[in-house]
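Chapter summary example.
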Amino acid sequence: MKHQHAKYLHQISHKRIDPPAVGAQTSVTQLIEEAFLSYNGGRLREACRLFTSKMLTDDTVVGLSLSGALTPAGLGASCLVPLVEAGFIDWIVSTGANLYHDTHFALGMEMHQSRPGLDDLKLREEQVIRIYDIVFDYENLLGTDRFYRTLCRGEAFQKTMGTAEFHYLAGKYLAAREDETKTKGRSLLAAAYRQAVPIFTSSPGDSSIGMNLAALQLEGSKLAIDPLRDVNQSASIVYDAKKTGNSAVFILGGGSPKNFILQTEPQIQEVLGLEESGHDYFLQVTDARPDTGGLSGATPQEAMTWGKVDPDRLPDAIICYLDSTVFLPLLTAYSLANHAPRPPRRLMDKLDALTAQLTAEYGKRRQQTDPA
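The structure predicted for these 372 residues follows.
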């Protein structure tokens, strides 16, 4: 009996816990592999392995969702830009706020580390804005507002477009600004333009960019954002990915971007009636609990019941209950050290063709089920 117990123990064991000492020369990879063994550290190690060994295979399209104030903390320049430039991120869903604050860096505006617990009334009097322990001049907001209003009054913006098309066009000008000021690599929007990575915003009116576009509407601007176009374009990316390989979702935080990147599968299966089985890989970093019923804390097992995650791929679904500001730099360093860059998919260049493909498939399905 004792022998049988030992046999079962070894069946469920990944490895014996017997780590070497952490030293001055320990690399990020060694630290994660040898010291992050259990609890949330263990999930971080599993997440790094999943991302690097499975999600970055040549036949897997990786979608990233961003919520929380990550770009103001510098994580756009330090982590997201390198991941995009390495071809590790193929398409993105972000809050508008992350893209608005990303623009500060492209425009050369300063963001400063400080500390929580400051006198907020004093900050208001001194026209200093605070995001927890980040502070910056109110002029950053006014200057970024002026940039977007001036840019979007231009002829190129006088049309209806989805958010991916809007961000790609804005990224073109931000990339040019970076080139002029020799500051390439500071802006996610600029990097996404160079790599033709689509960036969607699930709630385009819910940010300072949307507020400025609303002001232009009062001026008579012909610029209009079509969020329904985003639904079909994002679904077309996933539909094509599953026809030729795998679809992976990498979720930082939760909220509306998480739902938008996951709802691509119900859009394909439930609404359009096309045969599909769900995303293949699911990786989320969150501090939200599942028992409150909120989407941010919903597990991949729950998502599976909606058709969002392939039930046969649930072993490749990981949640890390960590702060994204801790997780993302570690994952970035680990993946860049352990996986060669991938050629960019340049999905923005293919978006019209992918949407046309989805439209044709939906048309065929309707003829078959509703010939009249």
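To summarize the output: The chain has one domain: 27-107+161-206+225-369.
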